[in-house]
Write a structure and sequence with these properties.
Elements: H1 8-18, H2 34-52, H3 55-62, E1 65-67, E2 70-72, H4 77-86, H5 105-118, H6 120-139, H7 142-154, E3 157-162, E4 178-182, E5 185-196, E6 205-213, E7 224-230, E8 232-234, E9 240-243, E10 246-251, E11 262-267, E12 273-278, H8 284-320, E13 322-325, E14 334-336, H9 341-373, H10 377-413, H11 424-431, H12 441-455, H13 459-476, H14 482-506, H15 512-549, H16 554-583, H17 587-591
Parallel strand pairs: 3-6
Antiparallel strand pairs: 1-2, 4-5, 5-11, 5-12, 6-7, 7-12, 8-9, 10-11, 13-14
Length: about 600
């Protein structure tokens, strides 16, 4: 089994050479220097490599245990989490006004990727806390902020999202958990399932954000409110009080992330769990989506972290495993399987995809920084429009691809990949949940093709496609990269044509909803391929310029060129096929009647 090493040089390539540290040019970050960012990455890599990563396999083997309502985590997890909060990592992207480090989101996302690559099961805990911080800071009253935010930001307390119930999965209008007003608080009764890190022993308190209905609430989404329900009640002076009436009734037995407690939580088995209204009555889903949007980008980044580890695992094995004769000398000595061209194809496919996904996710994070901190309203508005379009792509496309990358990693190992001791299978099992988390990838596709595209007539995506075409032109003007420019130009034309079909048919009064349902997933796949290829085209321009100028590590830049070439001339054509799927129409889907035969 190969150890994990956070790819700091690759992160610096994206932050420094592709994004040119654009976030640091915003007024809010004017005192943050590139040297500081480099030091942050190096220190975070040390935590990931030396503290978190060694627990990934043992945590999977040991799992979590429930006894008398208390969940115990695998050996070393509590100490690893303590090292994380002692280093101030939980508040890295939180504003200084709230007690955080105040670094750009693009840096926080980079750190998050390496921690998830090191140990996805443990990384899920602070990921959900980040969403809790966002929801409380935006929608909570001053008293709740004063009592809970500081501890959440530090990581001393952790946060959860409580949406799902047995009858209410993607359709949250079916939520039945009740909240009854009692003086200055509510009493909650009901059950929530699939609650990630819903009970554990690594922090002294857990702050649950729970969707529930008041007694007079109307049916449907407008009757749902959001409540803060702590594991331990908090006194006015901030000290912990008695245990609240919320317990872990059971733990799920899952395909992967065995070291992460996924809980069924029972609220109100006695007198009712005490909870506090967050925001306005009846606007719980609106407020919860503050957490969801935060989490969706992070789930995409999470998938990329696991994909990176799968790349490292597969490459390490392929360089060591001796099998067969070298293609360069058919009659010669045995060689490492990395010499075989089919294995090279798999390794390069894994690397090119991971590089492209990372570049797009960090580009999106940089747009988040602009949306929050750009100097004028128009710039913030335009950046937010980009974020809105990119988040479903980053979440869905990154996680779909991460599953494929982890699967390829198993294939590189051959039979050994199917054996748990090799470690490749765990990565596949762990990351398989990511396309389901925080709204399944089908829902992300519907969000992109329906709400995001239809609301502005595709203007935000058109602006991105314009930039894709600018990069394609720059590639075509470079003799060494001309073929990459041709491929990218074809991809951008496909995306623009598919978008026109979606806008035309999706706006039809009779068949619009059917068209969006039918075309959403292939459209998101096409968009993901083109936008990632765009980022790889930009990477090729930077790498070629560095080689032409004799700057830096030539081997590093040649590897980036190889990755970009594969992404644009081998991987992008797979995505371009989705245009034909959309042009084929929706008749087949409409005519198909699922039966038991």
């Amino acid at each position: 089994m190969m150890s994990y090493a956070a790819p700091v040089r690759d992160y610096r390539f994206v932050l420094e050479e592709l994004l040119e540290h654009g976030s640091l040019q915003l007024p809010h970050f004017e005192e943050t220097s590139p040297d500081l960012i480099e030091a942050v990455l190096e220190e975070a890599a040390r935590l990931a490599n030396e503290v978190w990563a060694p627990l990934n396999y043992s945590g999977d083997r040991q799992g979590v245990m429930l006894e008398d309502g208390q969940v115990s985590t695998p050996q070393g997890f509590a100490e690893a989490y303590r090292a994380y909060i002692d280093g101030g990592w939980n508040g890295i992207g939180v504003s200084e006004a709230l007690g955080g480090q105040g670094l750009p989101e693009v840096v926080a996302s980079t750190v998050q990727e390496m921690l998830h690559g090191a140990n996805m099961a443990l990384g899920l805990c602070p990921m959900l806390t980040a969403g809790a911080i966002e929801a409380l800071s935006q929608h909570g009253c001053d008293k709740l902020k004063a009592l809970y935010l500081t501890k959440l930001v530090s990581g001393e307390w952790t946060g959860t999202m409580n949406l799902t119930e047995p009858q209410a999965g993607s359709d949250l209008s079916q939520v039945r958990t009740k909240a009854v007003l009692e003086n200055d608080h509510y009493r909650l009764t009901g059950q929530k399932i699939y609650i990630t890190w819903g009970e554990h022993n690594i922090a002294e308190n857990i702050v649950h954000f729970v969707l529930a209905r008041t007694p007079d609430a109307p049916e449907g989404n407008k009757g749902i409110s959001l409540f803060l329900v702590p594991k331990f009640l908090v006194n006015d002076d901030g000290s912990l009080g008695e245990r609240n009436d919320v317990v872990c009734a059971s733990l799920e037995h899952k395909l992967g992330i065995h070291a992460c407690p996924t809980c069924t939580l029972s609220f109100g088995e006695k007198e009712g769990a005490i909870g506090y209204l967050v925001g306005e009555v009846g606007r719980g889903l609106n407020h919860m989506f503050t957490m969801m949007n935060e989490a969706r980008h992070k789930v995409g980044v999470e998938g990329i972290g696991v994909a990176e580890r799968a790349c490292q695992q597969a490459l390490g094995y392929a360089l060591e495993r001796v099998q067969g004769r070298s293609p360069k000398a058919r009659g010669g000595a045995s060689c490492a399987i990395a010499d075989h061209l089919d294995v090279r194809r798999m390794l390069l496919s894994m690397r090119a995809r991971t590089d492209g996904l990372r570049a797009l996710a960090l580009f999106c994070a940089a747009q988040m920084d602009n949306a929050r901190h750009a100097i004028d309203d128009e710039a913030r508005h335009n950046a937010q429009n980009r974020v809105d379009v990119l988040i479903p792509v980053v979440k869905a496309f990154s996680t779909d691809q991460a599953v494929e990358i982890a699967s390829l990693g198993i294939q590189v190992h051959g039979g050994m990949g199917f054996i748990e001791e090799a470690g490749a299978a765990q990565l596949f099992r762990d990351v398989r949940i990511a396309p389901i988390y925080e709204g399944t990838n089908g829902i992300q596709a519907l969000d992109l093709a329906g709400r995001k595209l239809q609301r502005d007539g595709g203007a935000a995506l058109c602006a991105l496609i314009d930039e894709v075409e600018t990069t394609a032109s720059a590639l075509s003007d470079n003799a060494a990269l001309e073929s990459l420019g041709e491929s990218l130009a074809q991809g951008s034309a496909d995306l623009r044509a598919a978008m026109a079909i979606l806008l035309e048919e999706g706006g039809d009064a009779d068949h619009g909803p059917d068209a969006i349902q039918a075309y959403a997933t292939p459209f998101l796949s096409l968009a993901g391929h083109v936008l990632c290829a765009w980022q790889m085209g930009r990477a090729a321009l930077v790498a070629q310029a560095a080689l032409d100028e004799g700057k830096g590590d030539a081997n590093f830049y040649r590897a980036k060129l190889a990755s970009a070439d594969f992404a644009l001339r081998h991987w992008l054509p797979e995505g371009r096929a989705q245009r034909a799927v959309i042009e084929a129409g929706m008749t087949t889907l409409l005519d198909f009647e699922p039966t038991s035969h």
